[in-house]
Amino acid sequence: MSIDFKDISVVIQGPVQAYQGRSQEPGITHKCISSIRQYLPGATIILSTWEGQDCNGLEPDILLLNQDPGATITSYNAKGEPGKLNFNRQIVSSAEGLKQVKTAYAVKIRSDNFLTGNNFVAAQQAFPARDNASKLFTQRVVTNTSYFRRYADGQKIVMLPSDFFHFGLTEDLLKIWDLPLFADLEFNPERLGQPQYRGAPKISPHAEQVYCNAWLMRLDSQVPYLEHRHQSTPELIAYWERFMASNLVVLEPEQIELGLIDRFIPKSKRPNEISHLDWLMLYKQYCDPNATVSQFEVFKTIGWKRMLKLPFSYFKYKLKNR
Q1: Could you give the CA distance from residue 281 to residue 287 in angstroms, rounded to a whole number?
Q2: Domain extent at residue 110
Q3: How many other CB atoms sit within 10 Å of the CB of residue 202?
Q4: Cβ count within 10 A of residue 23
């Protein structure tokens, strides 16, 4: 089945200028909109940003100026000073945009990314085999490998997908982004003098883990609350791998034809990130034993780097956390 571009809406979410400490490349959102017009002609463009943002010269089909929910307090240092992250800003700008979508399919893209083609549309339908017992999305969701981490501190971890780009059924993207807002972490005066955060004194989960854990728990009551970054068991790792194999299509940015600004482009593939070949091996293991990929291909591209890098990363982690 081919997907007509007119059946796709693109939600561009985030600020269009530098905002609340986040820098923004001048003109990047205009470039994003122009790229969608070029590579997805007929698609509906929804820009979901904040009240007070200067959107002059930007011409989406629908403009949403959301009320800023503010940053979320996620930690306190030993002095009791709060640390904040943009959990709720990402949820609001993504979810409110997706709620305006009337088409069957949707893209969620950051306001500082852009398209260089439309290969992701065909890719969404290119892996039909699925493990029925592991299906939580109606169809597969395409995502990219940038900051999609498979390892942290030399250890295999779970639930840390990239949040840069999603393409799939609108109903499936809403399963990811239509979340309740996160409450501020309450300060505990009895712990003054100690850092306070989720998972303390262990290392806190990455922001992407917190998001993913929240929506995955809503989809499957068997998913545990992730206390810290490295929380895993062989069973949980296998669950996460089956989920990825059965519900996602994980592609490199150039395979998606997703353009990234310079600060998101590494000099070489990061060993701690998943690769498309990693994902293809999982697809072969759990969904389609006839998929054309081999462990040797993984080793040639990223596996040899991991052999060198991961033990060193784990050694540093153990030294720091003795």
Answers
A1: 10
A2: 5-185+195-320
A3: 14
A4: 11
Q: Which residues pair with 12 in a beta bridge?
A: 47, 109
* pLDDT tens, residue by residue, 243-257: 999 999 999 999 999
pLDDT at 263: 83
Cα 168 to Cα 126: distance, rounded to the nearest angstrom: 13
**Which domain CATH number covers 212?**
3.90.550
Is-contact 255 146, C-beta < 8 A? no
The verdict on residue 190 lying in a domain is no
Q: Cis omega before residue 311 (within 30°)? A: no
Residues in Cβ contact with 313 at an 8 Å cutoff, skipping those fewer than 6 apart = 151, 153, 154, 272
What gap in Å lies between CA 169 and CA 303, rounded to an integer? 33
Q: How many domains does the chain have?
A: 1
Is residue 308 over pLDDT 80?
A: yes
Which residue is associated with the tokens 């000073």? Answer: 81
Mean pLDDT, residues 33-61 taken together: 95
Neighbours of 15 (CB within 10 A): 22
Query: Which helix (H) or strand (E) element contains residue 48?
Result: strand 44-50
Measured torsion, CA atoms of residues 109, 113, 118, 123, in degrees rounded to the nearest 10: -60
pLDDT in the model for residue 320: 87
pLDDT in tens, 79-135: 999 999 999 999 999 999 999 999 999 999 999 999 999 999 999 999 999 999 999
260 in any annotated domain: yes
Angstrom distance (rounded) from CA 301 to CA 273:
12
Buried b (16+ CB within 10 A) or exposed e, 122-134: ebbeebeebbeeb
What 3-state class would DSSP assign to 258?
strand
pLDDT of residue 321 exceeding 90: no
- Confidence at 1, pLDDT banded by 50, 70, 90: confident
